From TrEMBL:
Positions of region (Disordered): 359-429
Keywords (A to Z) from UniProt: ATP-binding, DNA replication, DNA-directed DNA polymerase, Metal-binding, Nucleotide-binding, Nucleotidyltransferase, Transferase, Zinc
Limits of the AAA+ ATPase domain: 37-179
This protein's encoding gene: dnaX
Protein name: DNA polymerase III subunit gamma/tau
Subunit structure of this chain's protein: DNA polymerase III contains a core (composed of alpha, epsilon and theta chains) that associates with a tau subunit. This core dimerizes to form the POLIII' complex. PolIII' associates with the gamma complex (composed of gamma, delta, delta', psi and chi chains) and with the beta chain to form the complete DNA polymerase III complex.
One GO MF term attached to the UniProt entry: metal ion binding
Compositional bias segments (type: Low complexity): 368-386
Length: 592
């Protein structure tokens, strides 16, 4: 039995069998049924999306002996000959291999003659953008006054290269890349009709590798059948495509989620044993991280039904996923420079482990606890952040790493100070269980017993607040909100923050929620936050930062003003310093 390639064998024989391209299909069926057929159609789209398939289908519709219709019979001589590629009135030209003007002229000379057998003489010119300028001119002449029995079907992957004069005489159809799910479904359908079986995941892998091209998908399926026999198995397809076992990638991400360096390295060792290509592993890791991010941000998209992926999406913080993606992306660039691929890859995943943001919940607390074993139990969980109490918000990666190691040995002074903060309040505050309620305009004179009852002095709390904000590593709106607040006090599981009415716009559901989450993470337990709107606010961290920036700016301008060289230039050339062009050194460093 002679083997026929699946792509050829299962080429669509009717519009019903066409995969995807619904709008184009509808437009063509409509044109055929109403008899309003344009003399020239142009199909555009990347390779393998069905341009020539559609053109051949249209040729059958026009020449079927049963009459012009959207449902060619598929039985008559004309239909069969077109299917077998030997219909004399279907002239297929691959412009990529036929660009000389003589050839095209010869071709178009015959346009005037009536069709030999069919109703229409159909010219299918593939990769039409490859025609030479002269050939385009010859084509244009024909398109200007097309004989009634001639149908032009043009196809191209690059419509930009077709002259506008030609484009304006064609009805253009843009064919879309075929979605992975549609390709996978079609592959399953083909296998069923072939009497073969498959694992669903195997077909998804093939569909992904085909990258939107049905033709590529079918030819890959051909290879998979040749490779694995009667059943298309996931493992075989992975081996054939050189795809990395997803289990290994999941294993690494689980190791990262659990901060388990040993598990992480074990997963890498497993991959090395399987002689995996670490560049491909990194690509697969990026793919999984992308799906995780989509799943986390738009859960209803159901990007993947894989239960393991859903589990990871719940276990990893969204900002961790973003960070890992960034590290993997940079790692991909640098991997070729590593001594050997495996060590390069290990460094990349270890970097993910080391630079994981500190805002996470239980894992950090647990690690800090083991490092600070000599400290009393209640203080232990908070000892690590306390060690960085006076530190400015960290800027460089090196600082972040240094911090991580510093956190292992907290100085006793710092932990003692934190313990003071955590002491139960001396007096019970009036604020009850429902303290989360915000003060609004109706109650401007809200009493403040809390401030009196606060266990630490107000000035200390303010300093403390800026330091806490630094440790919470808030960004965006939540960071803005925190910086514009003053901490009035902490009592039990409640933070009391005040914010100026003029900054009220920063206080929305999302920023509030993120700040509450960050405070809870900082304290290592669920916290409540009361926001109080005030007309006048004290020296917020935002105000302090603004003042510091202004002072730096003034100092920088003064330094330029006092500079001997600048003064000399000004005097000699009657020059002046362009206002606003002076920037403090700190800002410049920051931007590089
Ligand atoms: Zn027919």
């Amino acid at each position: 039995m002679s083997y026929q390639a699946l792509a050829r064998k299962w080429r669509p024989r009717s519009f019903d069998q066409l995969v995807g391209q619904a709008p184009v299909r509808r437009a063509l069926i409509n044109a055929l049924e109403t008899g309003r057929i344009h003399p020239a159609y142009l199909f555009t789209g990347t390779r393998g999306v069905g341009k020539t398939t559609l053109a051949r289908l249209l040729a059958k519709c026009l020449n079927c002996e049963q009459g012009v219709s959207a449902q060619p019979c598929g039985e008559c001589e004309a239909c069969r000959e077109i299917e077998e590629g030997r219909f004399i009135d279907l002239i297929e030209v691959d412009a990529a291999s036929r660009t000389k003007v003589e050839d095209t002229r010869e071709l178009l000379d015959n346009v005037q003659y009536a069709p030999v057998r069919g109703r229409y003489k159909v010219y299918l010119i593939d990769e039409v953008h490859m025609l030479s300028g002269h050939s385009f001119n010859a084509l244009l002449k024909t398109l200007e006054e097309p004989p009634p029995h001639v149908q032009f079907l043009l196809a191209t992957t690059d419509p930009q290269k077709i002259p506008p004069t030609i484009l304006s005489r064609c009805v253009q159809f843009g064919l879309k890349r075929i979605p992975e799910t549609a390709i996978a479904e079609h592959l399953a359908d083909v296998l069923e009709r072939e009497g073969l079986t498959s694992e669903p995941r195997a077909l998804t892998l093939l569909a992904t590798a085909a990258d939107g091209s049905l033709r590529d998908a079918l030819s890959l399926l051909d290879q998979a059948v040749a490779y694995g026999g009667a059943s298309v198995a996931e493992a075989d397809v992975r081996e054939m495509l050189g795809t990395i076992p997803r289990d290994a990638v999941y294993g690494m991400l689980r190791g990262l989620a659990a901060q388990d360096g040993a598990a992480l390295l074990a997963a890498v060792a497993g991959l090395a044993e399987a002689a995996a290509d670490f560049g491909a592993v990194l690509a697969e890791l990026l793919g999984v991280l992308h799906r995780l991010a989509v799943q986390q941000v738009v859960p209803e998209s159901r990007v993947d039904d894989d239960p393991e992926l859903l589990e990871l999406a719940a276990a990893l913080a969204p900002e961790d996923v973003q960070l890992f993606y960034q590290i993997a992306l940079l790692g991909r660039r640098d991997l070729p420079y590593a001594g050997d691929p495996r060590s390069g890859f290990e460094m990349i995943v270890l970097r993910m482990l080391a630079f994981r943001p500190q805002s996470g919940g239980p894992p950090q607390a647990a690690r800090a606890g083991t490092g600070a074993a000599e400290v009393e139990a209640p203080a232990a969980t908070r000892a690590a952040p306390a060690a960085r109490e006076e530190a400015a918000p960290p800027r460089s990666s090196a600082e972040r790493v240094a911090e991580m190691f510093a956190a292992e040995k907290p100085p006793a002074r710092a932990s003692a100070r934190v313990r003071t903060t955590a002491e139960p309040p001396v007096a019970d505050a009036a604020a009850g269980e429902d303290a989360l309620v915000e003060a609004n305009d109706d109650t401007p004179q809200m009493p403040q017993p809390a401030r009196v009852a606060a266990p630490v002095e107000a000035a200390d709390v303010d300093d403390d607040w800026a330091a806490r904000i630094a440790r919470m590593r808030l960004s965006g709106m939540a960071g803005q909100l925190a910086n514009h607040c003053m901490l009035d006090g902490v009592q039990g599981d409640q933070y009391r923050l005040s914010i100026a009415r003029s900054s009220e716009s920063l206080l929305n559901d999302m920023s509030r929620q993120r700040l509450i989450e960050a405070i809870s993470a900082l304290e290592g337990r669920p916290m409540r936050v009361e926001f109080r709107l005030v007309d006048e606010i004290g020296d917020t961290p935002a105000a302090q930062q603004q003042r510091a920036a202004a002072a730096r700016q003034a100092a920088a301008e003064q330094a330029i003003e006092d500079d001997e060289a600048v003064r000399a230039i000004r005097e000699r050339f009657a020059a002046q310093v362009v206002p606003g062009s002076v920037r403090p050194r700190h800002d410049i460093d920051h931007n590089h």
